[in-house]
Design a protein that fits this description.
SsuA/THI5, signal, alpha/beta, D-Maltodextrin-Binding Protein, domain 2, globular, 15 helices, ABC transporter substrate-binding protein, five-stranded mixed sheet, NMT1/THI5, three-stranded parallel sheet
Length: 338
């Protein structure tokens, strides 16, 4: 056989081998789904990053992000086994324990809950305790039943008479300088600046003692028992995705976010990333030396005790069933930080 023909055949065989290897790799990838708790946004960026830059694929995963929203029921989909992971939170998982539903937090992407209270800049509100002076606090029902009860138990002056329902519009707050409203650190203050032309006072509850984790990776006990390797790979890849999103090129991830949520803007995304970094939402506490996603019994118990004190949970509840530390706090991805 002439050398040219031999080389041609050899090249074809190499190409075929590569194609077959690629096909085998694709077939071998474990298909998993992750349900978010709201419409796509920068607060979900690390998960989108791991899809966009191939990190999940590198870990042998074919991941579908199931977007949340006002009409979504992703937590119910997790319970029913329709999705594999969910963006939960400790309150939901401890409540599930009390109901006998085996949901488990396996990573805590947000070390701090981004919940804030927002006040006017010229109302004499300089520190968190000053919010008790205001006549009105616009709060959602969940906030009224949880962190407002915590506020009343831990600070003087807060009272039920201040409460008014929050209708997810800043208009009532903007019209009343003697009021404050709830919000998310990374979103409502930005919208208020756009609409009102002033920078509001922002008070992060987490920096004043309110301690829940947020933006968890939550799964079922069945998933942990039957596919621990898949759980570990999903956690590791998601953590790496978050380091890439915060410190690498996140352009493609943001494109995916805007594709899922066309109302999302580049300005909002940039603001959200900046605030997550400024306030240590993702990197603070245990995650600083043990890696993004770290969760500990001590932190989880602190929140449980806070909620027991205001009668949200029963003191006899076995809160430790709501989480496991076996998949995190290993320094995963820390070398990617620039």
């Amino acid at each position: 056989m002439p050398n040219a023909l031999k080389n041609s055949v050899f090249s074809a065989l190499i190409g075929l081998g590569g194609m077959l290897a690629s096909m085998a790799s694709a077939e071998a990838a474990d298909k998993v789904s992750y349900g978010t708790n709201w419409l796509a946004q920068a607060e979900h960026g690390g998960f989108y990053q791991a899809v966009a830059d191939g990190t999940y694929a590198k870990h042998g995963l074919d991941v579908t992000i199931v977007q949340g929203g006002p009409n979504a029921a992703n937590s119910a989909l997790l319970i029913s086994g329709k999705i594999d992971f969910y963006m939960g939170g400790p309150q939901g998982e401890i409540s599930a324990v009390e109901q006998g539903i085996p949901l488990v937090d396996v990573a805590a992407i947000f070390q701090k809950d981004p919940q804030v209270l927002i006040a006017h800049p010229d109302a004499g509100i300089e520190k968190f305790e000053d919010l008790a002076k205001l006549k009105t606090l616009f709060l959602g029902k969940d906030g009224y039943l949880t962190y407002f009860e915590w506020m009343k138990a831990n600070f003087k002056g807060f009272k039920d008479e201040q409460y008014k329902p929050y209708n997810f519009s800043p208009a009532p707050f903007l019209a009343d300088k003697e009021s404050a409203q709830q919000g998310y650190l990374t979103s409502e203050p930005y919208e208020i600046q756009k609409q009102a032309g002033f920078e509001p006072k922002v008070f992060l509850l987490a920096d004043n003692g309110y301690s829940p984790y947020s933006t968890m990776i939550t799964t079922t006990q069945t998933m942990i028992d039957s596919k621990p390797d898949v759980v570990q790979r999903f956690v590791d890849a998601s953590i790496e995705g978050w380091y890439h999103y915060l410190y690498g090129d996140n352009t493609k991830a943001n494109e995916l976010i805007k594709k899922d949520n066309p109302e999302m803007t580049d300005g909002q995304i940039a603001y959200s990333i900046a605030k997550m970094k400024e306030y240590g939402i993702i990197e603070s506490g245990d995650s600083l030396d043990k890696g993004i996603g770290c969760l500990t019994d001590a932190h989880y118990k602190a929140f449980f005790d806070e909620m027991v004190a205001i009668r949200v949970f029963k003191p006899e509840t076995d809160y430790a069933k709501a989480f496991t530390t076996k998949f995190v706090c290993k320094g995963t991805g820390m070398a990617m930080k620039k």
